[in-house]
Amino acid sequence: MMMQMLKIAALLVVVLALILPFGCSDEEELPSSPPFEGVENNLVFTRSDDSEIEFGDYTLVWVGYWESMVKVDALHIIVSDSWPPSSPVRYWRLKAVIDDIVIGEKLEFPINFVWNDPREVMLFAYDEPNELSSQEEESRGWITFHKLRTSGSGEVHFTIDAVLGSEYHDGDSCSVQGTFRASIGSVPL
After folding, report:
1. Is 151 exposed, middle or buried (0-12, 13-18, 19+ CB in 10 A)?
2. CB 176 within 8 A of CB 165
3. Average pLDDT of the residues of the chain
């Protein structure tokens, strides 16, 4: 009799072990998506004369302080034809304060701040001899972050539709439209 009860108990344990993973939880466990690796840069920068600005394919994406003297955690993206951009003819750079980004929230340009108290996002483009920024009065438009994961296999994904104003009084503006997606790498040395 005791032997039969032990067999039933063992059988019950086996059955429960097989049943519990299926449907006993309200939360369905979905497979996680594989980490994104690489760069998808579909941004198009267009001068006021309708010519497109070519920036090159060298892309760096990392998280670090806004600047060495400004200890605010920020996302950094630089697209250029070389690193370091010692004397580039063209490059663009985005900096975003991590704590100010809300996924899916549209951030409107211009976004103004003091250099040592940054907020939200700053996009700068150098198109020799012009310098363009999302902080200029003539800037307008928006940027929306769809993903910003900074831990583990980090990833950034955003969409932008904006006009960057020239930092020079008589300089022309440029428009920027499209999407950008990339893995977040290490801080460059």
Report:
1. exposed
2. no
3. 82
- The token duo for 169 is 């009084």
- φ/ψ of 185, rounded to 5, equals -100, -165
- C-alpha to C-alpha distance for 149 and 147, rounded to whole angstroms: 6
Tell me: the pLDDT tens digits for 131-189? 999 999 999 999 999 999 987 779 999 999 999 999 998 899 999 999 999 999 887 76
Amino acid at 172: D
What is the 3-class SS of the chain, one letter each residue?
CHHHHHHHHHHHHHHHHHHCCCCCCCCCCCCCCCCCCCEEECCEEEECCCCEECCCCEEEEEEEEEECCEEEEEEEEEEECCCCCCCCCEEEEEEEEHHHCCCCCEEEECCCCCCCCCCCEEEEEEECCEEEECCCCCCEEEEEEEEEECCCCCEEEEEEEEEEEECCCCCCCEEEEEEEEEECCCCCC
Q: Write down the pLDDT at residue 43.
A: 98
Q: Are strands 140-149 and 155-166 parallel, antiparallel or unpaired?
A: antiparallel
Q: Are 131 and 93 in contact (CB under 8 A)?
A: no
Q: Where are the domains of the chain?
A: 36-183
